[in-house]
From TrEMBL:
Alphabetized SUPFAM superfamilies for the sequence: P-loop containing nucleoside triphosphate hydrolases
Pfam families per the UniProt record, alphabetical: ATP-synt_ab, ATP-synt_ab_N, ATP-synt_VA_C
Native source organism of the sequence: Marispirochaeta aestuarii
Classification lineage: Bacteria, Pseudomonadati, Spirochaetota, Spirochaetia, Spirochaetales
Listed name of the protein: V-type ATP synthase beta chain
The ATP synthase A/B type C-terminal domain, residue ranges: 364-464
Length: 471
């Protein structure tokens, strides 16, 4: 900046006057060398101070995104001070039971928490060799997840939903109900919501308050009318607290993030403002690495008792699973839970599609000593039978249901029972894993025993046709 004054301060350099304002971005030329994602204080002519973050830096120009926008800021009178460090968050166990905005500032009227540590929200890279392989089962109380797409402690398992589908209800239900089997250590939920409307944010808060689970939940809420840059900070703030709870407080932490599509839209918006060359669907070419930076902040580390499990939720634009957001998320994460709009239209909650959903780590966290010995074979049999139901339904739509064979009609009956009794459950219904597995055997009893090729004879003798009597 050739015509601006520079003031040297103990905590950084301050520049008077900026060169350009473009939406939420300001451009400052000829500064000292500054770091990527360095925190910035911007003071307008009235003395109001706003925080910003360095988005781009070079020898010629520095680009700063102002968190609360650039309204009332002018070129000659704006003062910019570079703080010489990234955005940091004071984190402590006392943040559980509190509500914060996307930057980690209190949004519930309470005081700022006194932190046990002050951590960089961007996190630190994890050496892959320091990771423990995820194995322990997390019970969500949702049969379609626990029975068929089991969530494992340390896993990242996204939910692919669509506009208007009940992903928010499911997210709140999982946050209320999730628990570690056997009561191992402390369990907490860190909930990050990005770009949500006020009524949705109120729903999340009241849902946790009414159930009494708020004391074990920390909420980070970035509302729809908050700046785009705040949505990019929100998951990082939430994960910074999760890392402290897991690796300093020895807690098992479930991080639920909704909606990652809003996060990606903000990334695209800021990339466009910066004039970057777009990639697929206008998203920046670094979308994959940016998502990986968030998703990979989960897992278990050798020598630490705690763990971080991620459950990101994203809405697929036009229900297109090949869209860049779900497509890239699927490459990074260990499976996906997919919502089906047709099931939702038939009143099925949660509308979890049986066939496209999978949990790649499920096989390592179920079975004898973890859930129940019959669980792996039962889940495989349910998948196989429901897959055949889809084929029979397609055939019935062509030739008519009355032309089906007696066996095919039994499969149709199984499909109805599977969706109405196994998948469907109340939004406040918490099913233990034993109940979920018993329901699986109950619906399988609609089929002849000779059709069950993926379970053992011993399992058929013990469970087939008997679970309904037990209940």
């Amino acid at each position: 900046m050739s015509e601006s004054d520079t003031v040297q301060l103990s905590s950084g350099r301050e520049y008077v006057g900026i060169d350009e304002i473009d939406g939420p971005l300001i451009f400052i030329r000829k500064t000292h060398p500054v770091g990527y994602r360095e925190l910035v204080e911007c003071t307008d002519s009235s003395g109001a101070v706003r925080l910003g973050m360095v988005l781009d830096t070079s020898e010629d120009v520095v680009v700063v995104q102002v968190f609360s926008g650039t309204a009332s800021m002018t070129l000659p009178s704006t003062r910019v001070r570079f703080l010489g460090e990234p955005h940091r968050l004071d984190v402590s166990r006392s943040m559980l039971g509190r509500v914060f905005n996307g930057l980690g500032e209190p949004a519930d009227g309470g005081p700022a928490p006194v932190g046990d540590a002050r951590e960089d929200v961007n996190g630190r890279p994890i050496n892959p060799t320091a990771r423990e392989y995820p194995r322990d089962f997390i019970q969500t109380g949702i049969s379609a997840i626990d029975g068929m797409n089991t969530l494992i402690r340390g896993q990242k398992l996204p939910i692919f939903s669509g506009s208007g589908l009940p992903h928010n209800e499911l997210a709140a239900q999982i946050a209320r109900q999730a628990k570690i089997q056997g009561g191992k250590s402390d369990f907490a939920v860190v909930f990050a919501a990005m770009g949500v409307k006020h009524d949705v944010a109120r729903y999340f808060i009241s849902s946790f308050e009414e159930s009494g689970s708020l004391e074990n939940v920390a909420l980070f809420l970035s509302l729809a009318d908050d700046p785009s840059i705040e949505r990019l900070i929100t998951p990082r703030s939430a994960l910074t607290l999760a890392e402290h709870l897991a690796f300093r407080e020895d807690m098992h932490v479930l991080v639920i993030m909704t909606d990652m599509s809003n996060y990606c839209e903000s990334l695209r918006e800021i990339s466009t403002l910066r004039g970057e060359i777009p990639s697929r669907k206008g998203y920046p070419g670094y979308l994959y690495s940016d998502l990986a930076e968030i998703y990979e902040r989960s897992g278990m580390l050798k020598g630490f008792k705690g763990s971080i499990t991620q459950l990101p939720i994203l809405t697929m634009p036009n229900d297109d699973i090949s869209h860049p957001i779900p497509d890239l998320s699927g490459y990074i994460t260990e499976g996906q839970i997919v919502f089906e709009r047709e099931m939702h239209g038939r009143g099925i909650y949660p509308p979890v599609a049986g066939l496209p959903s999978l949990s790649r780590l499920m096989k390592d966290g179920i079975g004898e000593g973890m859930t129940r010995a019959d669980h792996p074979h039962l889940a495989s049999q349910l998948f196989a039978a429901y897959s055949y139901v889809k084929d029979v339904r397609n055939l019935a739509s062509v030739i008519g249901e009355e032309e089906l064979t007696p066996l095919d009609r039994q499969y149709m009956e199984f499909g109805e029972a599977f969706e109405k009794h196994f998948v469907t459950q109340g939004s406040d219904e918490d099913r233990p894993i034993e109940h979920t597995l018993d329901l699986g055997w109950e619906v399988l009893s609609k089929l002849p025993a000779e059709e069950l090729h993926r379970v053992t004879e011993e399992e058929i003798d013990e469970y087939y046709g008997r679970t309904a009597e037990k209940r």
